[in-house]
């Protein structure tokens, strides 16, 4: 199987758009800035954006506090986000009922990438952005990455650059515009508006921004902890620029849509918001909210200073997971057509019960206390085949809400006779995935990262 054979365009994509993106993907040596210049620029940005992030007790948080009645952790303004409790009953997975803390952020954030032609080749405007939860400080992010509270300047800081390009885009300039979820195990009903907008010469790159071809971004996606989660989800919303026969999918489109609807109807997930103080199995100390068995994650507090952000210093809670995640996508050809094995996942924070996730998505340490029958499907196979993976990169999750959250992302080619272990799994073509990505709440954030990675091979 060749890497180019894995990529399929959206059937609805305009031929000119597909050919232009293909030209940008082929421009691996860059256009506006060469690859050595990009790495030198990124090194300068990391030195310039050095920030101090210090763990502190909850009592040291500025403008944050625990509600006396519910125990919920909130900002004094009532904006940004809060940490609540959640009681869950589910027919999905090895545990049928539990309580947990969860982040509630009802605001719809905006993630946008500006697209501009240079010499007839589309370039993406990417940002070197520091986040307090990143393991390495600065990572490559979208042109705009902002919550509503941030771009409305609730924090009293400076304006978000390039925001007007996305809030009022020119007619005919929008390439993609869709609401997408974030981690359904850590966020309650969190959504971001993912946008790609074509712009003209009026958009110039500031010192923290750089114009890169799609080929350059794809190359950077193959490096650990360089392209952040928000950039990856927006990249997945681009129309796929590679073509292959789409008429021989293992499952026709109508069957895939019916399967998703059926899994949503059949999976029972009851979610009841509760006070953080009511979460059974969790305890709060002076400096963390943690599980009694040291599993899953903990909520901690940090104090941050960064003279290059919208505000120079602040403090906030962060969710810190235990262990590195394994996120794996199995791929194979069926009658010559590439397919990926997706799982219909029910997570308590999803708006519509089920979204399509990767073949494997878990933190293995969270399952060591369970019997073999309750281990995540295909995890053993993924770990056994990891050394032969087509894609094997450690990537950070959202550094604005999670501390040192990393997952090992794998794309693994498997033989055609791999058994499907349950009705929660289906082989889906990249073209079918591309079509589903045009709509909200169909493909989860981990699978969207692997869609971007698959195109980058």
Count every beta strand, where a strand is a DSSP E run of 2 or more residues: 25
Helix content: 10-25%
Low-pLDDT ranges: 1-13
Average pLDDT value?
Answer: 92
Radius of gyration: 21 Å
Q: Report the span from N to C terminus.
A: 12 Å
* Dominant shape: globular
In DSSP terms (H or I, runs of 4 or more residues), the helix count works out at: 10
Strand proportion: 25-35%
The largest β sheet comes out as: 7 strands, mixed
Structural class: alpha+beta
Describe the structure.
α1 crosses α5 and α5 packs across α10. This protein has 457 residues and is an alpha+beta fold. The protein has helices spanning 15-26, 35-48, 148-151, 163-167, 214-220, 229-236, 253-266, 379-385, 430-436, 445-456, and strands at 52-56, 64-66, 73-75, 82-90, 97-104, 109-118, 121-130, 138-141, 144-146, 174-181, 187-188, 191-198, 209-213, 269-274, 282-284, 289-291, 297-305, 313-321, 325-334, 337-346, 354-357, 360-362, 391-396, 406-413, 425-428. The chain is globular and about 60 Å long. The longest helix is centred in the first third of the chain and has 14 residues, at 35-48. The protein has one domain (1-457). Helix content is 20%, strand content 33%. Strands 6, 7, 8, 9, 10, 12 and 13 form a seven-stranded mixed beta sheet that branches. Strands 19, 20, 21, 22, 23, 24 and 25 form a seven-stranded mixed beta sheet that branches. The chain contains ten helices and 25 strands. A hairpin with a 2-residue loop joins β19 (325-334) and β20. Its EC number is 4.2.1.159. It comes from Streptomyces rapamycinicus. It holds the Pfam family Hexose_dehydrat.
């Amino acid at each position: 199987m060749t890497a180019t054979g894995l990529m399929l365009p959206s059937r609805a994509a305009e031929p000119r758009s597909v050919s232009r993106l293909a030209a940008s993907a082929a421009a691996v040596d860059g256009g506006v800035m060469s690859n050595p210049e990009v790495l030198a620029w990124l090194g300068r940005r990391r030195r310039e954006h050095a920030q101090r992030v210090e763990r502190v007790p909850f009592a040291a948080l500025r403008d944050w506090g625990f509600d006396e009645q519910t125990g919920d952790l909130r900002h004094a303004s009532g904006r940004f986000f809060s940490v609540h409790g959640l009681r869950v009953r589910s027919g999905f997975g090895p545990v049928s009922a539990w309580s947990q803390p969860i982040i509630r952020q009802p605001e719809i954030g905006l993630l946008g990438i500006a697209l501009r032609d240079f010499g007839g080749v589309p370039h993406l405007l990417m940002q070197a952005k520091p986040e307090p939860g990143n393991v390495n400080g600065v990572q490559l992010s979208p042109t705009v990455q902002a919550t509503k509270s941030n771009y409305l300047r609730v924090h009293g800081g400076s304006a978000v650059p390039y925001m007007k390009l996305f809030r009022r885009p020119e007619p005919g300039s929008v390439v993609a515009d869709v609401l997408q979820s974030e981690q359904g195990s850590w966020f309650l009903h969190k959504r971001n508006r993912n946008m790609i907008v074509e712009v003209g010469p009026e958009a110039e790159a500031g010192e923290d921004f750089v114009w890169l071809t799609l080929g350059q971004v794809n190359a950077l996606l193959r490096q650990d902890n360089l392209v952040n989660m928000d950039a990856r989800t927006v990249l997945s919303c681009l129309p796929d620029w590679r073509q292959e026969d789409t008429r021989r999918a293992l499952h026709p489109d109508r069957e895939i849509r019916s399967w998703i609807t059926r899994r949503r109807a059949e999976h029972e997930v009851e979610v009841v918001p509760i006070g953080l103080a009511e979460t059974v199995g969790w305890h709060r100390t002076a400096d963390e909210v943690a599980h009694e068995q040291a599993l899953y994650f903990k909520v901690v507090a940090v104090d941050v200073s960064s003279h290059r952000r919208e505000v120079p210093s602040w403090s906030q809670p962060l969710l810190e997971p235990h262990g590195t995640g394994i996120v794996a996508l199995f791929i194979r050809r069926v009658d010559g057509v590439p397919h990926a094995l997706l799982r219909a996942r029910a997570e308590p924070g999803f708006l519509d019960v089920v979204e399509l996730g990767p073949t494997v998505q878990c933190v293995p340490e969270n399952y060591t206390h369970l019997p073999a029958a309750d281990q995540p499907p295909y995890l053993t196979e993924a770990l056994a085949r990891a050394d032969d993976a087509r894609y094997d990169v450690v990537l950070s999750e959202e550094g604005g809400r999670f501390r040192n959250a990393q997952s090992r992302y794998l794309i693994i080619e498997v033989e055609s006779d791999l058994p499907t272990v349950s009705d929660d799994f289906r082989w889906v073509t990249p073209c079918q995935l591309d079509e589903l990505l045009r709509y909200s709440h169909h493909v989860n954030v981990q699978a969207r990262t692997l869609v971007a990675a698959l195109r980058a091979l």
